[in-house]
């Protein structure tokens, strides 16, 4: 699902809201999450999950084509950990059989 589809679904579920207002709300939420991560804060949405930032230190990497060593700069990457409720909902009714076939 892409952001425009999310906005459309929320607007359909809430006919009393204009689609442009829903889009502004979704953008505001995503912007606030981004700003918090840029400050180094952790964003936790109970039942959904937590966003945080992890530091990847500088290292010496390798170009897979040439095998040549390459310096890789330090960087910060976003990290998302699902909440317990989401994990349970995603795995509810999942068949854990050996053959990977859902039909029995």
Automatic annotation (TrEMBL):
Protease recorded as keyword: no
Entry-linked SUPFAM superfamilies: IHF-like DNA-binding proteins (SSF47729)
Coiled-coil zones: none
Keyword Nucleus found: no
InterPro entries: Hist_DNA-bd, Histone-like_DNA-bd_CS, IHF-like_DNA-bd_dom_sf, IHF_beta
SMART domains: BHL
Segments traversing the membrane: none
Pfam families (UniProt xref): Bac_DNA_binding
Superkingdom in the source lineage: Bacteria
Keywords on record: DNA recombination, DNA-binding, Transcription, Transcription regulation, Translation regulation
Function: This protein is one of the two subunits of integration host factor, a specific DNA-binding protein that functions in genetic recombination as well as in transcriptional and translational control.
The protein's assembly and partners: Heterodimer of an alpha and a beta chain.
Family stated for the protein in its record: Belongs to the bacterial histone-like protein family.
PANTHER family found in the cross-reference section: DNA-BINDING PROTEIN HU, INTEGRATION HOST FACTOR SUBUNIT BETA
HAMAP family: IHF_beta
Name of the protein in question: Integration host factor subunit beta
Upper taxonomic lineage: Bacteria, Pseudomonadati, Pseudomonadota, Alphaproteobacteria, Hyphomicrobiales
Gene name linked to the record: ihfB
């Amino acid at each position: 699902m892409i952001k425009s589809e999310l906005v459309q679904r929320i607007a359909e579920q809430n006919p009393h809201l204009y689609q442009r207002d829903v889009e502004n709300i979704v953008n505001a939420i995503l912007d606030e999450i981004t700003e918090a991560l840029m400050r180094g804060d952790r964003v936790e949405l109970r039942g959904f999950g937590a966003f945080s930032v992890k530091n990847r230190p500088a290292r010496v990497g390798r170009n897979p084509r040439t095998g040549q060593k390459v310096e890789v700069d330090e960087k910060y990457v976003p990290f998302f950990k699902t909440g317990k409720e989401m994990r349970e909902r995603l795995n509810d009714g999942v068949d854990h059989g050996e053959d990977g076939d859902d039909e029995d």
